[in-house]
């Protein structure tokens, strides 16, 4: 009996095993020209979900229950798609033929589904992994500055801000950056942090840049454009990869005032991707960068008069502490009262008007840390619940030092930022939740910290003793004038006398004072802001196209919560964190008509922000006409709204002596600043009154609760691939902005309703406040690009862009910081010589001089012509590449923003293993 049961069970097991027997498909894929293995090739079965990607050795392996013969499809960007029929077991040996990718690039972010780039309804630029490998830039993020219509501001070596359509500034809150579906903004500061918390160098699959308004698809604050970054799928990109880059910068040349000498640059990156089996894969990424910062060293007088030998009220653009400025007349009057015999010297000075004198400032070098450091790590797990249903868990962490410019210079020292995601991704839908967690570390706010350092080593005026920097300055000035010196000569002598005992930047005494001041929160008389803000986001999207047969329909929902937590140092949250929630719903519909020659699309988005009473509707409509097989005309219209960012609404940060960078919410205007009781006057009129003493010169400025801004944007473009070797793209756009958010400088005297209070600098407070301009602002421009495949892997590109602002509101700092035109040229080869071992790339970027406004000042950015280049050699057997390159080869120092650092040349050598 037992024997019969065992035999029966054995037969049943064999029957089940036979029913579940699978065919194992294996093989290897190589380049038909060089015989190299090709990683990341898609291997799929016709009419079946099974498939694989080749690993870093070019091998693939997967199982299927389907019986032979089996049709396999092999596809990879840059190679001809190939089909073969497999008749039975055995490893396959496949060779793919390289082809040009010109005009064949596909994008996703323009319409939320895959389409050819030249068929996109809006202007979009794309950077692929191969573009990054062949670029001379040691950081993939800096490749963006060579794209058509893209502007950048480099605040420091590790912090670059990107935008399009002209509104260019460091920390742009109207440009959205999406990384693997996650908004990459700092939760409190509300602007993208560039590559600081983005993908590591070896984990970038592609970058897509949408120019102009894109909030219909990507939500509020996408008014200036959107950058979508996609990381590498560990099922597709497998194996261990590493890249080591070592270089040198700060090589002085000519008239450069770079205070640093030659300094090392290090960048180390490791990526490991592994497909454990057909269901589970993971990847790990680590990157560490260390260098000496580019230094902001512009000593131009922000008052436009001259240096300290000419102007006693000298305030250098990048000299910190000189914002402490008082009228010397009050001290001259005091000296006259004590010594009437000085009347022949003092009275002519008093009769000639005001005599403002600034404290001596500190240069950036020696004051702000010049150590640029960045550590990034990422782990991602993927599990295929079904062949087309994947569960994803990921975590990304970044920490380091960086500097950025806005209403002053901020040195982020030891900041931390983490992003953590959980996602279910199917063929037609996804569910995604993520959180971003910010820690500002030990942040130095350059201007007020330097002013307090000056007050610490010698107060400007001590009311108890009558002594101080200004009394000492006044005494030395009068003594020098009694000895026959003129006012200007005497001023130089007086400054040297009053500055006795001033600690040098970087000295132990200076560092002690700086640390003691910057370690105290702003709420306790220091300058530290403590930002521990959080962002929580949940999103769902469904593609109904397989259900709605007449069109492509995609719809989604999004919920976001900002938890602002600065302990009163950045926001008015002393009583606890402030929660700001956003709710969104969107839909995108695409329909092809007239024999599929005309593609019509419409997008609708509903957004609600809890800081504002009314919801906003965003729309986009577009049409793409197929002129012929490879030529397309596109037209788009978008009506986009943007809720003011948390910074534009609620920020209240000291940036100077009795001076604040401020949001425009009524919660601040009338609640904190009491403008309803103590009116705000334009700072320009206050400065005028302080000189003339005429109250009629004071001009009151009405400020109302800030509200959302909107833009109506039109674009017309044309893309064409000619003879499979010339790709052209031209466009023009025109936009009308309503309730445009800019900044205005005002002042009031809290607690005092007497205009005479403005004569005493200690009695009034200055504010740089975000507000809506009443006038309509127009922007317009045009751009063109040409790419030519010269065969044998040679490719030449040139692009030209031009942006203009019309109806400028002169009462606002509007951050439209771009030259009237700029152009870029790119020429390279991805493989030449024996077995195509060599490659090179050269880029040229030209920007004429242009006017640049930012919170702490404005001025002209000089013209720049920058050449970057690299040459590479591949070690085929070692799966490695050696690259020799440089950025700004001529080492002519340049800036791309007012008050930003001077960027010199950097020369490097890089060794990359198994990078593809």
Automatic annotation (TrEMBL):
Domain TonB-dependent receptor plug as annotated: residue spans: 117-226
Signal peptide limits: 1-21
Membrane topology classification: Multi-pass membrane protein
Domain of life: Bacteria
Keyword set, alphabetical order: Cell outer membrane, Membrane, Signal, Transmembrane, Transmembrane beta strand, Transport
Compartments reported by the entry: Cell outer membrane
Keyword Ion transport (UniProt): no
Family indicated by similarity: Belongs to the TonB-dependent receptor family.
Name used for this protein in its record: Carboxypeptidase-like regulatory domain-containing protein
